[in-house]
Structure formats: C-alpha cells, structure tokens
Structure prediction request, 519 residues.
Amino acid sequence: ALTEKDLQILPENGIDPENPGKYADLLKDLQGNILRGHGRDSSVHLFLQFKPGQVQELKKWIKVFANKITSAQKQADEAKLYRDKKIAGDPFVNFFLTRKGYEYLEFKPFQIPGDQPFRFGMKNDTIRKLLGDPVVEKWDPGLQEEIHALLLIADDNVVSLLQTVNKITRELYRLAQVVHREDGFILKNEQGEHIEHFGFVDGISQPLFLKRDIERAKSKTFNKKWEGSKWDSRAPLSLVLVKDPNGKSEDSYGSYLVCRKLEQDVKAFIDTEEYLADLAKDKESGLPLESGLQIKGDVELGAALMMGRFRDGTPLTMKGSELRRTELPDDTKAGEFDDFNYDNDTQGLKCPFHTHVRKTNPRGDTGRVDSSGDTPEEALEKERNHRIARRAVSYGVDYQSLPDGKKWGQKGFKPPVTDSGLFFLCFQADIANQFNFMQSAWANANNFVQVNVGVDPIIGQTQPGDGRADEATGNRTQKYPIAWGSETTKTICNFNLWVHFKGGEYFFAPSISSLKNII
Ligand code: HEM
Prediction:
C-alpha cells in the first residue's frame, strides 16, 4: 500500500502510468480527469436526482455502470494509443456523488466522505455567504433542485457522445431524473489554442503529477531544470487525493470536485477593457473619457490588467508591450509558459495585485507581506497547498460551430452577453482549504494581498452588505498603475463584475471499486 509519504512527496519526475510501479493499484482504481484533464473536445454533464424508492435498482445500475467509468490508468493508456496509432478510445466517463446522493444510497455517516463543505453542500447559507454567492432562487432552475450525482461523459466525436448520452439517459429513465444538463466544449482561438470566452488562452498553469506533463513543463522553463526555475508546477498527490472510505483496495482514493456554472458577459468585458484603455468615448462629445488609464488605447493591455496574462498567455509581469513574446525561452509559446513569479514586481506595478492570476496564485507574494512570522519559504509552501486542479470547459455559444461563426479577434465577432460562460470544475483534497479559500480569502477579498487592492475583476463576488462594494451602486473599487510599470496609480471606482454565478455543487469522485462493490 502507498504510505503517507508517497502521498506527500511526488517522485522527482512524477508518476509514469506506462511504468506505474507502486502506483499501479491507485491508478487502476482512481477515476480519470483528476491527475490530468480528460482532454476531449466535447462533454455532457448530467445532474441527477435519484427517484424515490429506487435504492436497490440504482445500486444494481451503479455496479454495472462502474465498468464504464474511465480510470486514471485507462485514460493514460488510451492517450498513448492515440499518440502512437491515432486510435480513438472509448467515451470518457466520470461519476460523482453528493452527500445527499450517498445518503440516498444508504451509506452510513462514517462511510460518507467527511470534508465539511462537501457535507454542507453549496446551497448551505454559511457556504453561500462565505463564497459571496447569490441566493439560491437566482440560480438556474435545475441547479436549485436537490442533486444526488453528476455524470460527465466526454468524447471528441459529438455523434458518438450524443449516442452514449442517449443510451445512459434511457437506462436511467426509471431511476433518476436529469434535473440539469450542461453541454461543454473546448473553445479555440485562430491558432487552435484552448481559450475561454473572454478570449484568453486557458489551462496553462496547473499542478502536475504525471511524468509526461512534468517533462513537458520542465522543457519550457528557462534552464530546462526545476532547480533555479521561478515556478515549479509539480504537486504531491495529497493536493488532490483522499482515501475513499468505501474503497476495496488499500490504494483506493477519491477526490472532491467543485462544480460552478459561471456565466460570462463578454460584451461588457470588452467594453471594460476599452474603457480601461482610455478608448471609451463620451457619448455627446465623442472624446475619450478621462477615467481611463494612460495606456494609449492598448485594449489588449486593458484586458491583461484584469487577467494578469495577455490573451496569448504572456504573463503581464514580464512584458507590457506588443514585443512581449521575446522574453520567453526558445520554442515556448506564450500559452504554454509558466516559469515566472512576481519577484520582479513586488509592488504590483506591472501586474496589479488584483489580477485574476495573481489573486489565485500569488507565487510568493504572501511571504513578502505576511505578518504571520512565516519565512518566505514557509509562506510559499502554504500558498502552494491552496492550489487546485482546474478542469473547466466552456458552455454556451461555440463560435466555431456557428455557420457564420466569427472567432475571437475576427471582424464581425459578436460577443455574447448571457448564456455563455465557464463550466468551472476543480479537484482537491480539502475544499475549505483550497477552492473555498481561494474564492473567499483571495478572489473576493478587497485586502488580499495588500490593503485595498480590490477584488479579483474576473471572479470576485460581492453581495450587498458585505462591505466590498459601494452600498448605493454596487460598484467596486480597483487600483491600476496608469501605465505598465508606472508608480502612479489610478483608482477606478465604478468597476463592475462580468462573471455571474448560476449554481453549482460539491461532489466526491469515488474510487471505482467502491462503486463496483456497492451493496
Ligand atoms: C488561471 C480565466 C474562474 C482559478 C486563469 C487564466 C485564465 C482564467 C485566462 C490564465 C491561464 C492559466 O494560467 O491557465 C478564468 C475565467 C473564469 C475563471 C474566465 C470564470 C469565468 C476561476 C475560478 C477559480 C480560478 C472560479 C478558482 C477560484 C484560477 C487559477 C489559475 C487561473 C488557480 C492559475 C493561476 C496561476 O497559477 O498563475 N483563469 N478563470 N479561475 N484561474 Fe481562472
């Protein structure tokens, strides 16, 4: 069996599913998508509410269905087969349960995974207030319902995906109601890179566990070594895995999944970047509004001042001009680059402290401002324990599939206002210390990582009465350097937020053996 130490210390070069050694049992019993994203282009997410009086029938169904769930090992084997021989694998399948799902299936309290937010559920008032989420009545109707399980089915081939989904929904017809369905896809820019709806390359910075991912990331660091690099993306298994109380092997592990539907108002976001770039015109005079920054109409810089990376992925802290690719290591695309920290920008004058990537991964900032008495190394270690494994996909309009589809940046591109966004998913071992902490103590906080830097302009949430927004207007205050690297800052008081929470839930990804042996 794996020891505590195996969980806490990743082998130097990561875990190699082609040669798993002592990790073999773990990888066979663990669901896929946790240690690395499933990578399929299209996915369907079915939120299930089990029907009353079907406990035994459901257990029978789960036992059989468990054979279809993609293990971490199978995910890696199929990926290799695809790389070597271009043979496509089976549909990718995940199965997750909520606390209420476990209870419905008559698990005893001690058999139900113990994480506290997981036990409370996302609709719980304390959790909702902590995260700054709107009242449940404002969520998407299906997500307001009691949810017992989530099925994730993913495939590169949409026809085969829909066939699988139809087959599963027919099987479940008498047993469960699909209270909400979310179809996800990978949005791509003109270069074929994976982006989100605001147009930024996404999924760059991730905690890494597997050998291939680690080798690849290492080759993109400046000196092709971890030693001396600015950011080490490796992470121990304990960041995402916990023992499954119902697993049948000694190496049966699971992970907590946070799921949040986040609508993006892309039009308003683009208006804001133009506004920040001093482009927004006064309706009557046609003159630029004075409230913008002195960045000479550089809308891309306006956007980066909110995200912390440019749309192509270049970290804002490294370059503030069009020449920004030049500082990257050889052959590295900006959208793959992660070997940076904020040591060269300790005052947040290049990359403001409020930017989304700096808020959600301060890369050592807390060691510089922390009054807790931690050494910089200790502070960094604590920060790194808050990391999450992000597995989000986009939902809503897929520009590429529209007959007259205009991709990001193309003339005539019509940015969506509602009904498109990020179906945010992330795995972790401890929800309170990871996702909840990141959202509440970092993104939503006006005073992280310094006093009055403002909330994260991408995902920060404020609610009336929480003191983070102007009571009368609901507007938030953001502080920006007036130009890249400038020591003069400008406070913008009428900043609004363009990501709207539409509902979500906490789940557990049980080990496959616990589902095959459910009694
Ligand atoms: C990074 C967009 C929601 C946590 C990023 C990046 C983009 C992005 C473009 C930079 C690319 C990368 O490093 O992968 C968005 C959008 C969101 C959203 C548009 C909502 C609609 C969230 C949420 C969280 C989160 C809810 C967690 C509370 C992170 C983290 C990183 C990141 C941890 C990596 C930062 C780093 O290591 O440098 N996001 N994100 N994001 N995001 Fe988000």
Q: What stands out?
A: The CA atoms of residues 230 and 340 lie 5 Å apart. The pocket of protoporphyrin IX containing FE is lined by residues 196, 198, 200, 202-205, 262, 264, 307, 309, 356-357, 360-361, 388, 390, 421-422, 424, 435, 438-439, 443, 458-459, 499 (CB under 6 Å). The chain is about 25% helix and 15% strand.
